[in-house]
Amino acid sequence: MQKSDKINWRALFSPQSVIYSLLGIFSATVALEGFMLPNHFLDGGITGISIVVEELLQIPFTYLLVAFNLPFLYLGYKKIGKTFALRALLSILLLTVLMHFLEVPAVTEDKVLIAVFGGFLIGLGLGLVIKGGGVLDGLEIMAFYTTRNSAFSTAEIILALNGLIFLGAAFVFDLETAMYSFLVYFTAAKTTDYVVNGFEEFTALSIISSECEVVKSLIVNEYGKAITVYKGERGYLPGAYEIKHDCDIVMTIVTRLELHRIKEATLKIDPNAFFFVQRIKEVKGGIGRQTTKDPFKDYVRKNLQRSDVETGE
């Protein structure tokens, strides 16, 4: 699948995209000016690099944020497409403009509150901008494409790069600031993941039931989910090891909202049904929806597919 070489103006300025981006940029502005910058706390990525360089060279943070993001936006333009690159550039420029004209006083001096709420707000902002189709930090673009030539995942590469940034912060500021900054990053990463994936995070649900045929019909026909059936054996209980019988193990991929509903419906059919649930790092192929636990990778895939359809490429 190739990148889109046309700017999709309708998608670029769609109401949903604009609303998500504006809310995300406002949240990031409050986080940076009200919590992080006054206390020299860092998030990861380009934001963290810009804060460290600002302290070293006394160059305004907003200038550094734009300058350091430009190479990664160019990479996004070359690898993803013009619509994505332009949307990301506009988001970053709007963030710098808002930070220049909007004065947000420091909310608190408590370091734990700064780390938690600053991380939450910056993560909320990043997640909303990603849902709007852009990014506020170009480092994720590089990490996403580095995975193609590496055995490591995007999250692992980003964590390694941010580790170097926090190590630099320990030398420029102090070790305590670097430790609190890692808390900011952790909170922001979890918030971004939840905002982007939300209740769409997928989980593998496996069910063993004596009423397996009814359960299969329930999942497929009532909930519209695809299933996979494993052939297994039940039994082997303590004190009755020799007793066993064949059974079907029904497995399906569900969201967190669907998980509870399917379990409740299954228990009405078979109160003794056995469940086990597993977290899914990535789902692709088959007839199910694609998803991934990496918010940026998830957006890139969806964006590429949408661009191909809309531009006819």
Automatic annotation (TrEMBL):
Domain spans labelled DUF2179: 227-285
Keyword field contains Transmembrane helix: yes
Entry keyword set: Cell membrane, Membrane, Transmembrane, Transmembrane helix
Location(s), subcellular: Cell membrane
Taxonomy of the source species: Bacteria, Pseudomonadati, Bacteroidota, Flavobacteriia, Flavobacteriales
Organism this protein belongs to: Salinimicrobium oceani
Membrane topology recorded in Swiss-Prot or TrEMBL: Multi-pass membrane protein
A Pfam entry, by short name: DUF2179
Protein name according to UniProt: YitT family protein
Transmembrane segment boundaries: 12-37, 57-77, 84-106, 112-130, 151-173
Transmembrane helix keyword on record: yes
